[in-house]
Amino acid sequence: MKSKRGFITILTGLYSFQDCIHFLAAIRKFHQEPIIILIDQVPKVLYPLLKAFKNVTLKPAPANENPVLASRHAKLALYEASDFEQTIYLDSDICLLCDINDVFEYLDEYDFLLTEDVQPYIVKATNLLRGKQQDLLPNVLPILQSIGLPLKEDSVQYNGGFMAFRKTEITKLFFDKFKYYFEIVKNNQDKLLLKDQGAFASAIASVHPKMKILPPTYNYLSKWQDAYNIQDEIKVLHCTYPYRPQYAKNITRSLYTRVFDRFAKVFLPNQVTNPWRTK
């Protein structure tokens, strides 16, 4: 291992490039551990903009024309891609609001750290299926079970935008199962959307890693702020940069990011209108 602890994220395509720059700036404000970026469909001429942040390594993500599918495949490859004994994975549209050293400390005891989805009940996970959500609600679990996912009424939907894991045999087995069940999802696109939560929950249900569920303050999706009842300080804000509140933008504000943001307005596509997200 090159380092005991480190971060990893995914950048597939230019739509998330501005998010990733601010992701790196937020990590470096609070942490000095190495960062790995799994990258695809980004011109190499732009790599120095990412490498401007200290101790950043770029590794190729699994290539795919669809950057959303490339991102899904990269998430399946996190175990192999990580050089660390303890890894914190964060989506590139995440902004740290403070240090999260406690997450690394939890990994001394647990194989996996996760946060539940805003809507954690698999039986209500109409977001995974194609069709009108109000019509699908009674059939969510039967449809997921019918294609071979080992889910039950008490199965939980997790938000894969945040996860932390340590290198163990059980964690390796989890990612192997994650890949297996995601292939099932891909092969049933007539029924399912191209999302990974069902496969992720299936891998958890199959492997049962020793895990700790962290509160939503570690993966706070501001889009769903009305769904939370939070009293504690938010540590990890999950929000694409254009929609980010000013206090969070101030976290990553520097001469470098101010100059970059001017460049982004002219030369980068608007990640909010990414057409691949609807595929």
UniProtKB/TrEMBL annotation:
Domain of life: Bacteria
One Pfam family named in its UniProt record: Nucleotid_trans
Domain Nucleotide-diphospho-sugar transferase: start-end pairs: 88-241
Annotated protein name in UniProt: Nucleotide-diphospho-sugar transferase domain-containing protein
Record organism: Komarekiella delphini-convector SJRDD-AB1
Organism ancestry: Bacteria, Bacillati, Cyanobacteriota, Cyanophyceae, Nostocales
